[in-house]
Design brief:
mainly alpha; single chain; Tetracycline Repressor, domain 2; 2 domains; 424 residues; globular
Length: 424
Amino acid sequence: MGYNGVGRRAEAAKGCHVPAKAATKTRETAKRPRDRKETILRVATEHFLRDGYHRTSMVDIAARIGITSTALYRHFRNKEELLTRSVLDGIDEMLAGLEHATTLEHIIGHLAGSALDGRGLPALWQREMRYLSRDTRRMIMNHLVKTAERTRSAITAERPDLPAADGELIAWCLLSLFESVSHHEVSLPRDQYEALLRSLAYRVAYTDLPRGSAFDDREIAIEPVIPTPSQTDGASRRDQLLAAAAHLFSRHGYASVGIDDIGAMVGITGPSVYYHFRSKSDLLAEIIDRTADATETYTARALAEARDPADALELLLRYYLSFAFTHRDLVWVAVTELTHLPADVVANHRTRQRVGIMRWTHAVLAARPELDESAARIVAQAVVMIVNDIVRLPWLLRRHHIRDELFTVGMAAQAPAARAAIEV
């Protein structure tokens, strides 16, 4: 009667004394799941997305998994390594799939699937990438540029008369469209969701960009919300500080900016800032409050001025474009820095954001009754995110007609089929 090697080792071990420390270590090893690292990364990503990188500790992550922080450090050296792996692993998976995507159809299909598989990843790198090392940031940006270039090549192969520079803009708009699903939690059955994303992507990919103004002669007036740093002459000290804080938070992140930095930008000492604001958090809260107030005002104005449902979509986009191009810092602070505020303030602002996007959603529904509410909201979120992303890419802002081009792309995505570039 024979038995295998494992059985022989077990039999040989009978009656042998095993030191208590070694036995404990053996039990811990036996209990450790094989996918422990993947579990840690998943939980860490969820924490970073919900609470922000700086408000998440290794202890929080370990407690959620049910292990000690000491056990967590056996897998990852520190929190920065966790964030780096969370972002890079997701991007690497996306790029690996793109290696085999040779046509625009394949690329759009792959990116639609990746957007849903890695939902949350784009929001994570947009919000937290600045806290990683310079080498890691460069690596992430290189990955994104490579993805955009592969997408551009596929677009211009399908559209040989399209200039390469136009293909580049459309490629970045496509990436923003797919990234938009990480900024909300709207759900659809998987096959319907992918089909909707592909349809939106084809509309954008085949957009004919304008060579001049795409707007009619109606005036879109945007009042200043906070002066830009170059336009603070004559502004109150409070507004000067808000402008400085918005600029610095947008460039460096809330956590990396000190009160002294904000004061220095307007020519006062850090402690003098407290004559105007109780804390740095109050500065951020007012910036986001004013941004929300302005977007609510312009949304209401667009809907009141619209002649019909399709015109409402045009005016919503025109007003938002004018606001975003005038206040790029405010837009990006609202997207990336909200989680630094107290939980009750965050909840209030997220409610305001949902109410605002639902007004846009209902405008999409009125113009496109073939969609249900979930699909209409996905469309509205995609259009807003395309604008939010592109106004932060300086090499694209140098294009002479970039605002008109983004209007045309946005309308191609959201308009009824008769007014869109193409429906596939």
